[in-house]
Amino acid sequence: MSAKPTSLLVLANSGRAIAESAHRGGYRVTLIDGFCDQDTLAVADCWPITQGFSSLDVEIFVKEIASLFPDNPCGVVYGAGLEESTSLLKRLSEFCHLFGNDPSVLELLRRPQRFFSLLDRLQIAYPEVSHTAPYFATTRSWLIKRAASCGGQGVAYFSPEYAATDSACYYQRFIPGQVMSVLFIADGKRHHTIGYNTLGIAGSGAPAPFLYSGAIGQAYLRDAVRSQVELAVVKLVSELGLRGINSLDFVHNDAGIFVIDLNPRPSATLDLYEHLLPDGWIEHHIAACCGELPEVPNNDPAVMHGHQIIYAPRNIEIPNKMAWPQWVSDRPPAGNRIVEGQPLCSLYAKGANATEIEAELHTQRDEVLWMLGPSIYPSQPCLVAV
C-alpha cells in the first residue's frame, strides 16, 4: 500500500476542519461525522452519524466503508469521538492505512488508573485523583470525570448525588488556574510544537461549565513554564510512541503546570494554525505518522487567531435564505433544526491580542444570533464590518 493514498476517510464527531485541511493537501475526502455542514459538503463526501461511533455495529460499518473504496486503498484519519471505538479503528486498519496513533494509546487513556500510574512513573504532575467519591469535599472542590470523553462532555462538578457508573469514571480535584493546551506534531520519537493555546472563551454560552467553547492560539508562556510543558510532551511521545498531531491540556498556576488530558489526535485548536500551511496540516500529520517529522512554520507574533463555538440558546431552525458571514464555519444547512444547547456554528477572528479577539468574537456572536431572528436575539447589536 502506498504511504500516501489519494483518498482519505475522516472519522470525527465534527470533522469539517480535518476535511478542509485534507482537501487543501489534494486528497479526495470522505467524511463521517455528526453534522455534514454546508462548508464540509463543499470539500468532502459527507455521511452523517447521529448516535456516535461507539453505538455502531463494527462489522456492518466496516463492510459499508469497504464498499466505498472497492479498488482504491484509502487512508484513515480520526479526530474527536473515536476514544471509545478502538475495535472499530483496529478493523478499519486491516484494509486502510491508519494515519494516527495506535488504538492501544486510546485504550490506555480509557483506563484512568493505568494513565495516572503512567504519569506518576514519568513524574508528570496532575491534579489529585480519587477512585472513590469525595463525599466530604467542599462545594465545587472536586470534579467527576469520564475517561475517553472529549470536549469536556464528560466533566462536571462533583456533588453527593453523582456517583461513578463504571471504571472509566473517576474524581479529580479542581485546581484554579488558566486552562491551556499545547498542540504538537510527533513522529513516534521526537516532536515539534505547533503552538500554545488559551482554552475557553468567556460568555460563549456553553450549556455546561467544562464544555469546549473555543480557544485563542499563540498564547504566551514564560520560558520556565514552557520548559515544564515541553518536558512532559517529550516523555509522553517517547513512552507512547505518539505520532501525528496531538494536544496536551493542562492547568497553569503559580505552582506550575498540571496535566489534565492527552488528546492523541488532531484537536479543535488545529484550526487556529491552518493559515500557516497552504497544503494544510493533515498532509504533515500523515508525513509524521509515516516517520517524517515536518518543520513547523513560524507564527507571525503580531497576529493571533481565535475561535468560538456558538451553542444554540434555544431550539432553532435555520432559515432558507440564511446568508452566513465569511467568518462563520460549521454552517448548518437551511432547514436544519438545532436543539437548545447543541453546537450551532463556529466563529473565527484574528487580532493583535486576546482582548481584541474576544471582543470581536462577542460581536460576531451577537450578529449571528440577531440574523437568526428577533425571538433569539431581540435587539439588534452594533454590527462591525470585518
Automatic annotation (TrEMBL):
Gene3D superfamilies per the UniProt record, alphabetical: ATP-grasp fold, B domain
Gene Ontology molecular-function annotations: ATP binding; metal ion binding
One Pfam family cited in the UniProt record for this chain: ATP-grasp_3
Family annotation (InterPro entries): ATP-grasp_PylC-type, UCP016817_carboligase
Domain ATP-grasp fold PylC-type, chain residue ranges per copy: 118-269
Superkingdom of origin organism: Bacteria
Name of the protein in question: ATP-grasp fold PylC-type domain-containing protein
Species for this entry: Candidatus Thiodiazotropha endolucinida
